[in-house]
Amino acid sequence: MRDETRFRRHKGACPYYRENWANGDQRTAQGESLLYEIYCLKGWPPETREDQQRCMCATQRCWRNRESHRVTPEESAALHATAESA
What we know:
Elements: E1 17-21, E2 36-40, H1 49-57, H2 73-85
Antiparallel strand pairs: 1-2
């Protein structure tokens, strides 16, 4: 998944967790108002509220694969470069 500048990051959440806030007039397939879409840069977006809560609290390790969240400066630069080139 490519990082985008419109994606919102959360200080206390997984560094790969992103939200894209809707502009208010977007609708889901079921016709409900869309508040935001959730993305995971690793390709594992949460599918339930419980999954989302786990992502929001996963400050040390990814709860899905136990991967460390220590993002190196090189990885951080690559994520930001991808976002800026979009």
